Amino acid sequence: MPSNRKSKKPAKRYYRKRVELFRLIDKIKLWPSRKGILHGIKIIDKIGDQAQITTHCNKTFTVNNSKNSRAARWLRNKWITGTCRVCRVPDWKLAKYSATQFKRHHGSLLLKESEKRVK
Ligand SMILES: [Zn+2]
User: Fold this and answer.
1) Is residue 114 part of a domain?
2) Among 19, 11, 13, 12, which residue's Cα sits nearest to residue 104?
3) Does residue 93 sit within a domain?
4) Buried b (16+ CB within 10 A) or exposed e, 78-109
């Protein structure tokens, strides 16, 4: 791995505040626990409006695809107190996440190309 990768700052990216939770976690692969610990997501298994999430520390749970769920709010507001030691979320991923901003009127809704055309 080239050594200059570490010092390179990730580009700022903008997502909508109302982005769907599943789209968001599909993208960033991070999950905030109720204590504010960030876990790395290993598997997202979507079944309709629910998804079974497995973290790298092998916790499995089911979540709903809500824009206003606790997890969505925590990720948006970055109410993060730490990162999971077992998941070992890589620094570049955390840097990418911290460079991500959530805006009300600006940013991506993380739609797929085919969905953009419909809008
Ligand atoms: Zn974990």
Assistant:
1) yes
2) 19
3) yes
4) eebeebbeebebeeebbebbeebebeeeebee
110 close to 27: Cβ distance less than 8 angstroms: yes
- pLDDT tens for residues 54-88? 999 999 999 999 877 899 999 999 999 999 999 99
39 C-alpha to ligand 1 centroid (Å): 4
Do strands 37-47 and 100-103 pair parallel, antiparallel, or not at all (unpaired)?
A: unpaired
The pTM (predicted TM-score) of the whole model is 0.85
**Domain count along the chain:** 1
Distance 30 CA to ligand 1 centre (A): 9
Nearest CA to 60 out of 45, 79, 78, 48 is that of: 45
Please tell me what DSSP assigns to residue 87. Answer: T
Residue 22: exposed, middle, or buried by beta-carbon count in 10 A (0-12, 13-18, 19+)?
Answer: buried
Question: What range does the domain containing 76 cover?
Answer: 13-118
Q: Which residues surround ligand 1, an ion (CB under 5 A)?
A: 39, 55, 57, 84, 86-87
